[in-house]
Write a structure and sequence with these properties.
This protein is an alpha/beta fold. It is 43% helix and 21% strand. Strand 4, helix 4 (89-99) and strand 5 form a beta-alpha-beta unit. The N and C termini lie far apart (42 Å). Residues 7-68, 76-133 form the CBS domain.
Length: 149
């Protein structure tokens, strides 16, 4: 199972010149916990950072900075952690755990943004898999009962 098969392809993006306030408004409008900072390179949207709701709280609100006066590029860390759409879900989960991140932009072979994967997505997928496995066990019991004399 690859990340590309299960990532969310509807990514909310922003440019570095936009204000932090605009980033927060986009998160609220789209009910998401992040926006991906992109740059246009050779006609492709390339992710260069990510701003999360936690970043807004820790980096802007807690120190009392004015969100309308800060640009997104002012709080984004250089060299974002990215994964490729052909990467294994389990490998990506392990990498996310090691880096202590909950969301990761997903890129294609050319480095263009194609989606985002979040721990919440992985939890939902694992829950579905566990439900399927439980159904198999339940069906096995039913078959045993039906076959008994």
């Amino acid at each position: 199972m690859t990340v590309g098969e299960h990532c969310n392809r509807e990514v909310i993006v922003i440019t570095g010149e936009e204000s932090i306030k605009v980033a927060a408004q986009l998160m609220r409008k789209h009910h998401v916990g992040d926006v991906v900072l992109v740059e246009e390179r050779k006609g492709k949207r390339v992710p260069v950072g990510i701003v999360t709701d936690r970043d807004l709280v820790v980096e802007v609100m807690a120190p009392g900075l004015a969100p309308e006066e800060l640009a997104v590029r002012d709080i984004v860390v250089d060299s974002p952690f990215l994964v490729r759409e052909e990467d294994s879900l389990f490998d990506v989960l392990e990498m996310m755990r090691g880096r202590r991140v909950r969301r990761v932009p997903v890129v294609d072979a050319d480095g263009e943004l194609v989606g985002i994967i979040a721990v919440d997505d992985l939890i939902g997928l694992l829950a579905e898999m566990l439900d399927d496995m439980a159904a198999v066990v339940g069906r096995q019991r039913e078959r045993e009962i039906e076959r008994r004399p």
